[in-house]
Amino acid sequence: MKIAPSSFTNQPYLIDGKASASQVIASVTAAVRAERQRPGLAVILVGDDPASTVYVRNKSRRAEECGFLSRQYTLSAETRGSELLELIGRLNGDPEIHGILVQLPLPRHIDACRIIKAIDPSKDVDGFHYVNVGHLATGALHEALVPCTPLGALHLIQEVLGDKLCGLHAVVIGRSNIVGKPMANLLLQHDCTVTIVHSRTLSPEAVCRQADIVIAAVGVPGLVKADWVKPGAVVIDVGINRIDHPGDYSRLVGDVDFDEVKTVASAITPVPGGVGPMTIAMLMQNTLNAARRSRIQQASAV
Ligand code: NAD
């Protein structure tokens, strides 16, 4: 569906991240079959953090479903940084592996920056290596591997607005290296006027109210209220916050107060079922792209 931000009808379009992610996965799987190549993804988990364990398992499974070579390395929480660097060095030189992902956060005794910098940028499917950050910031998108969550969020925005992003005002709430900053850079590349709101921004609600597109990546449940949003804006909620309830259950909520904001937005992502499923789908897309580039590079080197 393609709607203009001004075509607000009081019935917001619910952006279905699960359906979009399934389409991306189906297209990656079809490409793997058609191209008769087998992208290889190595996922490394250090320690036994429950959430990270689930994320890593899901990534490895999804890679298998796409027809990839999927390798998972589970290392103890006591693993030394030098051992992790040694594993990354081996994977950098392994021709069967095109994507290397180290699940974050790492245990505190390991320097995550040093680990990320050790990954061959052409295999950095998370897009966190400063070479990929630089490619994105300078607009060399054809060379970049772009972080998966902002890439997935952009995909959902384009599902709603098509190629009509030029000149729209996008407000990104959050300035992390993983979501906020790459999101802002991606939107700049698509000719949006971009404002970043962060924890020190004065009157964030007034800044947000000017936006045609709001992307919330904060980690504060329900921060964005109806009066932060211009009627007809497209609202993308990246936040994933677990709320524990007395008794024995918890639920996931986003950074946007969904029930309030759906009354003013023209399109909105739910949590769960919005940006979340897109992250793994874009990881598969990045791994396929990395494998394709490696094949082209090998062919041109002959
Ligand atoms: P982070 O903690 O690294 O960054 C949060 C940012 O929000 C900071 O830049 C900070 O300046 C800003 N901030 C904090 N309080 C604020 C406030 N009151 N007003 C405005 N800005 C404020 O978090 P992150 O890694 O960017 O993640 C953000 C959220 O997105 C979290 O809920 C996280 O779980 C979620 N997330 C989801 C996915 C996904 O796959 N959907 C992936 C990554 C992160």
Characterization of the model:
By secondary structure, the chain is of the alpha/beta class. The protein folds into two domains: 85 residues, Rossmann fold (3-Layer(aba) Sandwich), CATH 3.40.50; 130 residues, NAD(P)-binding Rossmann-like Domain (Rossmann fold, 3-Layer(aba) Sandwich). 40% of the residues lie in helices and 17% in strands. It contains ten helices and eleven strands. The strands form three sheets. It has a six-stranded parallel sheet. A three-stranded parallel sheet has the order 3-2-4, with helices on both faces. The protein has a two-stranded antiparallel ribbon with strand order 9-10. It is globular, with a radius of gyration of 20 Å. The termini are far apart. The model has no long low-confidence stretch (mean pLDDT 95). The site of nicotinamide-adenine-dinucleotide has 24 residues, from α10.
Summarize this structure as a short list of keywords or feature phrases.
302 residues; alpha/beta; Rossmann fold; 2 domains; six-stranded parallel β-sheet; three-stranded parallel β-sheet; 10 helices; 11 strands; 40% helix; globular; binds nicotinamide-adenine-dinucleotide
Characterize this entry briefly.
This protein has ten helices and eleven strands. It has 302 residues and is α/β, with parallel strands linked by helices.
Main beta-sheet strand count, sense and barrel state: 6 strands, parallel
Q: Percent range for helical residues?
A: 40-55%
How far the N terminus sits from the C terminus, by CA atoms, comes to 45 Å
What's the total number of strands?
11
Q: What radius of gyration results from the CA coordinates?
A: 20 Å
